[in-house]
Amino acid sequence: MPHLSSPSRFVRGAFASPELAAVDALDGGDGAAVLRRFGVKPTAMRVQVYEVLRAHAPGDRLMTPDEIYSEIRRDGGSIGLPSIYNVLSLLADVSLIERYRLGEGPALFSARRAERLGALLVCGGCGQVSGRRSAALEAQIRALAGEQGFTLAETTVVLRGLCNACACGASPAGPAHVARRGTPGRLS
C-alpha cells in the first residue's frame, strides 16, 4: 500500500487551528500578505514559491519541487532547488500548503484551499497527478467512518488508472507502458 500523508494538516503534533483550516489560496490578497498573516517572513523566495502554487490552485494541480523550480526559473527568478525544498517544508509546517506523498517519487504540493482535495487521480502511463474536490465523496467517507465509530483525522482517496491522453494512445507512454508497470485500476 503506498504511503500517503499530508503532515501539513498537523502543526507540532496537533490539528491545525480553525484559522488555518479557513485558508484558501483563492482568497484575495497578495502572497506576501498571506505569509505575514501566518507569521512567516515574506522573503522573495518564499513569496515566489507560494505564488507558483497559488497560481495553479484553481485547477487543483499538484506540483513537484522540480516543477516549481522550473517555473520560477522560466519566469526569471533565481532560486536554488535546495531552497525550494526548504521553503516547501516551512510552508507545509504552517499549513499554507498541502504535501502529498504517493509511494515512490517526490512529494507533491498544492496551495491550501478551504476545502481539501478529496481524491487524487494518478495516471499509470504518464505519471500525471491531479486532484479533485468532492463534497459527495467526503460525505460518504465520513458516513462510513461514523458507522464504524472511527474518528477521521484526514482523508485522501487515491485513484489509479489512465488519463484521457494515455487511454486514447495520444500520450507517448500510452497503454502499453502501463501494462509493463502494473495493472490499471488495481489499488495497491
Topology:
Blueprint: E1 10-11, E2 14-15, H1 18-21, H2 31-37, H3 44-55, H4 65-74, H5 81-93, E3 97-100, E4 108-111, E5 119-123, E6 129-132, H6 135-147, E7 157-161, H7 164-167, H8 174-181
Parallel strand pairs: 5-7
Antiparallel strand pairs: 1-2, 3-4, 5-6
Helix pairs in contact: 3-4, 3-5, 4-5
What can you tell me about this protein's structure?
The protein is of the alpha+beta class and 188 residues long. The protein has 2 domains: 114 residues, Orthogonal Bundle (Arc Repressor Mutant, subunit A), CATH 1.10.10.10; 74 residues, Dna Ligase, domain 1 (2-Layer Sandwich), CATH 3.30.1490.190. 38% of the residues lie in helices and 14% in strands. The protein has 8 helices and 7 strands, in the order ββαααααββββαβαα. A 3-stranded mixed beta sheet has the order 6-5-7, with no helix packed on it. The chain has a two-stranded antiparallel sheet with strand order 1-2. The protein has a two-stranded antiparallel sheet with strand order 3-4. β1 and β2 form a beta hairpin. α3 packs across α4, α3 crosses α5 and α4 crosses α5. The longest helix is centred in the middle third of the chain and has 13 residues. The chain is globular, with a radius of gyration of 17 Å. The N terminus and C terminus are likely disordered.
